[in-house]
Specification:
The structure holds two protein chains of two kinds.
Chain A (H helix, E strand, L loop, with lengths): L1 H20 L12 E7 L4 H16 L3 E7 L2 H13 L6 E5 L3 H6 L7 H5 L10 H5 L2 E2 L2 E2 L2 E7 L1 E5 H6 L9 H11 L12 E4 L10 H8 L5 E2 L2 E2 L4 H15 L10 H9 L3 E6 L2 H8 L4 E5 L9 E10 L5 H14 L2 H11 L17 H8 L4 E3 L7 H16 L4 H16 L1
Helix pairs in contact in A: 2-14, 16-17
Chain B lengths: L31 H32 L16 H8 L1 H32 L7 H13 L2 H12 L5 H8 L14 H26 L3 H9 L4 H12 L1 H16 L3 H6 L11 H11 L3 H33 L1
Helix pairs in contact in B: 1-13, 2-13, 3-7, 3-10, 4-7, 7-10, 10-13, 12-13
Classes of the chains: A alpha/beta, B mainly alpha.
Keywords (chain B): Cell membrane, Membrane, Sugar transport, Transmembrane, Transmembrane helix, Transport
Protein name (chain B): ABC-type sugar transport systems, permease components
GO cellular component, one term (chain B): plasma membrane
Chain lengths: ~425, ~325
Amino acid sequence: MMKRSLSVLATVGAAALLLAGCSGSSGTASDGPAEITFWHGYTEADGKVLDQIVADFNASQQKYKITTETKTWAVIDDTLLPALSSKEGPQIVAMPAERMPVYADRGAFADLSDFYASSDSNTADLVPQAVDMIKVGGTPYGVPTGFVPLAMFYNKALFASAGITEAPTTWDAWVADAKKLTVDENGDGTPEQYGVAIPDHATVANGLWPSLLLSGGGQIVDGDKAVIDSPENAKTIQYWTDAITKDKISPTGLDGIAADQLFSSGKAAMHVGGPWMASIAKDNNIDYGIAAIPAGPAEQAASAIGVAMGVTESADDAQRAGAEAFFTYFFQKDVATQWSLASGWPPLRTDIPLSDVSSNPVVAALSEIAPTGRALLPGVVNGTDVISDIDELTQKSVAGGDVTELLSTAQSKIQQAIE
Amino acid sequence: MTTHAPSAPPRRRGAYRPPAPIGGRGPLRHSPRHRLTVVAFLTPAIVILTVFVAWPMVSALRLSFTDASGFGREKFVGLENYARVFTDPDIVSAMGNTALYALLFTPIAIALALAFALLLNNPLLPLRGLFRTALFTPFIVSLAVAAFAWSYLLDPQIGLLNYWLRGLGIQLGNVLQDPTLAMPAVVLVAVWKSFGFYMVIFLAGLQDIPTSLYEAARVDGASAWQRFRSITFPMLGNTMGFVVIVALIAALQAFDQIYVMTGGGPYGTTQTIVMEIYQSGFRKLELGFASALSYVLLLITLVLSLTQFLFFSRREKDAA
């Protein structure tokens, strides 16, 4: 009996050990190709093309085998930390570029300086701003898979009914058109149709207000110094606060998703967004046009959205070599063109002519305005904190706060965040 | 004269035995085989609790004294993280928001639950079962799903609630983005979601009260309020204690509903401690600080729960 009881205990103990032992990583087989896992968040047609590019890469050589796992961007951000800290993480991961610096700074991604230094890496012609997004202290920790400036999407039918024939090109024209397009049919003070959807917080890739600040001649951070508290930024914030609250061209309290919905439901004539707005508009039968964000008093500029992929610290030497070989393959001119056309984003290489991507009108339109793109907070590790400070500034301003005081508060908070 | 000791009642198999006093019946002697069987049955639970509860707690305690990010090397920083918990203005503000949430949620949810429990305990009320089910149903809906649904209902542009109210000439505005209304709005949704659960617990407590007490009170001419004050409320002491502690813990751990409905906004007015833990850990990758914050929350919860436990224990003792 004693023996039987002991054997029960032994079995339970063995099961526990087995459970604990289940956490072994895939690693590299002693023979055969190095196995590499690649997480990405491309879930639509772009995901299928990316998977196809990976399959083509696998077929092109015998040394490495990449397996893709599709997850949404939010899931990647939420699961990467537990996955990597338990040594279960992917070896390649794509993520929103503005999130990469914080992971890199904490040691999650490998330094790719040597890869960029290699003349064979196909990185020499990459859009420089796209690479800047994933540098921390001048060191690159990833490669871009997408870089596109925010653009203005407009509803052609609503424009036609308001007698507007062309998209506005300056702020004053933008506000004037937006006023014409704002309709309060029953006069209750709440328009049924807005000229433009301007979210005051949690905007798409957090880039709308930084775009306006840039166009107004201001900045948020300059090197290691917060510079939000400038006269140019005060003017910009006041200009748009007045347009939203006095001219009522946009509802207040919108976030990025609500702004998307307002445009896609035909209740806003103009909206600032990324390439995905093309498919959202199409799905909602909105005849849309794409234009650059109108120019401010200083320049025509737009904060850019970026996606990047990096090699995680869980990769061994063979896996890292495989990842770099894949990046090299991905940046070949023909593959980069294929990826641009399929993803709907402008080419990542500066030497791909517009004519090569003109078959996709969205890519063509976005590529034309690509020079307006500026990397958002490049190299700023705690970008999340900076953006939430900007959100607080814009929300409070639209809610009636004093712009000068708000900028002063934002200045000290942002300075604290970047130190 | 002989004295007779009262004869012991005949012992029958299955006869009633009074419950054991607290502390057990005294040492029982079991065979080694019996002991091993007990250990074998307990081992899986102990292993699971050790791996998934005790070990993470110990690990988190260790992490709270480091600058761990989840990757790379960790540095021991002593009590730095704990000092930051009480000096970082954002965390202090989140603590204030959590306290406000708990102060609003706990009494409203409990009062509503008790009121409906008293109402639905009345055997004369028709369709009692239907009402009980209807009020309990929100509790079984996922909190995130309920939060999504309410976010859409309250949306100023496409929300049904706003649409109806506009029809009545009322402009509700963007409640979830209003710094004054956002917190009451999320509290009300949390109350709607969970008071049915507390109501069911109160109903169970109410059914444990002997009806003879009410009958005697009625004979003595006690009014409904007097019956509630002198019988129902004191007899619900244990139940009330349990509900208050559970509701308070739920309030201190508020996260998913707020995450979905407001994301902590507008500008941090609904940011709670658990939201801060999530953002510190998963957004800023400051696991050490997030662990310290978790332990501070654990201590706050423990102190509040123990205080209430002692209060209700003493009350029960006094009543006895």
